[in-house]
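Thread: quick sanity check before group meeting

JM: Hey all, I'm pulling together slides for Thursday and realized we never actually wrote out the predicted structure for the chain we discussed last week. Dropping the sequence here so it's in one place. If anyone has concerns about the input, flag it before I start.
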Amino acid sequence: MLRTRTTRLPAALLAAVCTTAAAAGTAVLTAPPARAADGAGQAFTIGDPRITESSGLAASLRHPGVYWTHNDSDDGPYLYAVDSQGRTVATVTLRGIEPRDVEAVSLGPDGRLYVGDIGDNLGGKWPEVWIYAFAEPAELRDQAVQVTRYKVRYEDGPRDAEALMVHPVTGRAYIASKKQGGGGLYQGPEQLSPNAVNTFRRIADAPWTTDGAFSPDGTRLVLRGYFSATLYRWKDGAPSGGEALSTPFQRQGESVTFSTDGRALLYGSEGRDSPVWRSPLDDDQLPDTVRPLPGPTTGAAPDRNAPAASGEAAEPSAGAPGDSSSTSAGAGDQVLGVVFLLAVAGAVLGLRRKKRDG
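JM (edit): ok, ran it. Output follows.
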């Protein structure tokens, strides 16, 4: 119930406004271009009317140019394969489960897709959550699959979470909890067991997180929130450092994945006809096994119009060192985020004053 005698903003909203404003700095208030010279911008729009709460995103290795996604709660046991034009090319039904709050999807080195039924809208009340795993289909068509179900508990009690990341080299699963003021990064056992409780132990602090992903070589970890993202170096089974990234302003930023070449991040959002944005990484942000592309002074520039190898959808390349187009676009988006949040805040305050005066 709303209190009619206070004009304080909700704490989460106020925190989001302050964080976004600080990240935006002195950026110019202009909308970013649809596609910048370095490939930054909107990659595609998810057009399937069934997908209204896209809450996870994973780039397929078996089917280049395809991304796996799913709805949040109240949809059913479904996973959707969406191509680089935003078209649904397959719907996979997970047999034998009744998901409660699916929040994440990740691809493991064993060729299986891991689906995280790890959300807790009650703020951390469920004594256990689940991970479902099945082999990524060899053929993209509507089909039903049998899954392996893993029971998950946290060593320090129940909590809400929206990010499941399976390391692409070790196969170990990690979960980032979602909590105002910061949550934690939890590490699963070396191998998940379908016959016992899998206890996840906290190994590091984590910011407010709605999704996360490892780079294809496992040397980088990204954790995103509604209006921000942080990139970590991954070494010896733990994150280190932490660099704030420019992120697009989205309706409700819920998902993130690395491109299959490791050169860019793709950010997804909830909502009908939700756009997926591509944000190239700078040279010093690239995973360890990804070499910077040659620039004007180091060699011939790559042919951005050349067809991709092995039938993969062509991915625009990352910009040369010092290219600020991606950063400017992200900063502009963050300023728009500030404006949006302030508008929401104004509406909330106006409603409260109206109730108080009435």
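AS: nice. The radius of gyration is 20 Å. The chain has a mean pLDDT of 79.
JM: adding both to the slides.
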